[in-house]
Specification:
Structural class: alpha+beta
Number of strands: 10
Order of helices and strands: HHEEEEEEEEEE
Strand content: 35-45%
Strand order of the largest sheet: 1-2-3-6-7-8
Length: 207
């Protein structure tokens, strides 16, 4: 039989071990179940707590052009306003004024390689794509100031290039502002269409 002092020591050691194991278990539960650790990390939310914004009236979209080797060449990110039975060019979008070429934030064009626009070589990078619509032709502008809302911050001092392109008649009504790249000789054309018309902006490879 063990002496009384040794029995007490052994019992105390067991209690301490049990306490440590219990403590470690609690810590593990907090680490692996963070939803129980903080109210901010709750998995289940009430209807009042879980709120998302409604679909924007002019949702954002993008168009990406890849070459024959599937390498990204250019990308445009823009918002898509709707026609909704309105007369667009010359009314909603006035002729002769700088336009963001979309809605909300101004449209942005990213070139992943140097490209030629008109007579200018544009370095790879991101630019704001403004335009000045006209009845028979548009002036399309690549501007170096990015992350802008509307055309309120536009200044021609930041222009990299301007190109005039003719207005073309669309074969059908284009309800939402639409953009797409179309492969062309030595590059691609950016098509911008809305309502009953569209324009083509040529981008050429730099040789």
């Amino acid at each position: 039989m063990l002496p009384l002092s040794l029995l007490k020591l052994k019992t105390k050691h067991k209690d301490m071990k049990k306490f440590i194991i219990t403590g470690l278990s609690a810590i593990c539960l907090l680490i692996f179940n963070p939803a129980h650790a903080q109210d901010d990390d709750k998995v289940n939310f009430s209807k009042e707590e879980l709120k998302f914004s409604k679909t924007d009236a002019s949702p954002m979209d993008l168009a990406l052009y890849r070459d024959k080797n599937d390498v990204a060449v250019a990308r445009v990110i823009y918002s898509r306003p709707q026609k909704r039975n309105r007369e667009i060019f010359g009314k909603l979008i006035p002729y002769g004024e700088v336009w963001r070429t979309g809605a909300n934030e101004a449209t942005e064009l990213t070139l992943y390689q140097d490209m030629k626009v008109a007579d200018a070589t544009i370095k790879a990078g991101t630019y704001t794509l403004y335009s000045i619509p006209g009845e028979k032709e548009w002036t399309v502008i690549l501007n170096s100031k990015t992350n802008t809302w509307g055309a309120y911050e536009y200044t021609d001092k930041e222009d990299k290039v301007r190109i005039n392109v003719p207005v073309r008649q669309a074969p059908n009504t284009i309800e939402s502002l639409s953009m797409a790249f179309q492969e062309s000789n030595n590059g691609a054309d950016l098509l911008i269409g809305w309502d009953d018309s569209y324009v083509k902006v040529p981008f050429k490879e730099v040789k």
